[in-house]
Write a structure and sequence with these properties.
The chain contains two helices and eight strands; from the N terminus they run ααββββββββ. By secondary structure, it is mainly β. It has an eight-stranded antiparallel β-barrel. A hairpin with a 3-residue loop joins strand 3 and strand 4. The termini are far apart.
Length: 198
């Protein structure tokens, strides 16, 4: 698929750039005295306003199918472990909601992030892989990639504003749906805002 190939190449280039950039930055004197914490907590809001994946297999206005107007929003919480300053891994969950069709689910994912750590500002790259808990016994899965700018808000509180790409495949059943399958594919680019206490 052309879009997946593009994002794989983009992911490789951005990760390499971020690693080189992160290690080329010299910390300011203020940061040299600031020790990063091993365990951190973060929260993230995300919003996708359009679906680039599957098109409706039913009528355009069918309430049980994705359309071009389908939106996805969510709020997630993660617990992270800093391997070194600027490189962290963690697990996250939260609540995410689709419109058209209208349903919510609980994601569960692992993440890896590369940024400037305790630096005042830096690029932020993050990769997430996980699945969903819906009303179906089949879990489905997703992968997401984020690239943005991270900055200090106050002392050890940091925020990032990132572009986020998602591809997810999930199962959701509806009593009145005329769909042949309960499987939904969603692919989109959106905006994400994260806050973490480092």
């Amino acid at each position: 698929m052309v879009i997946e190939s593009f994002f794989r190449k983009s992911l490789t280039i951005i990760l390499l750039f971020s690693v080189v950039y992160g290690y080329s930055q010299q910390p300011e004197e203020e940061e040299q005295n600031f020790k990063f914490k091993r365990i951190t907590i973060g929260t993230r809001f995300l919003a996708f306003i359009s679906n680039y994946g599957e098109k409706s297999e039913l009528e355009v206005d069918n309430p049980y199918d994705f359309t071009d107007g389908t939106k996805l929003t969510g709020l997630n919480l993660s617990v992270n472990y800093n391997i070194i300053n600027g490189l962290s891994v963690g697990v996250g969950s939260g609540i995410e909601k689709f419109t058209q069709p209208n349903f919510s689910y609980v994601p569960l994912y692992t993440r890896i992030a590369i940024n400037g750590g305790v630096e005042r500002s830096s690029f932020h790259t993050e990769f997430q892989i996980g699945g969903h808990f819906t009303n179906s016994s089949k879990r489905g899965g997703f992968h997401r990639f984020l690239f943005g700018y991270r900055f200090r808000v106050y002392k050890t509180v940091f925020s990032d504003v990132s572009i986020i790409y998602t591809y997810q495949n999930l199962e959701q059943s509806f009593d009145n749906s005329q769909r042949l399958y309960d499987n939904y594919n969603f692919e989109s680019v959106g905006l994400s805002v994260g806050i973490d206490i480092n």
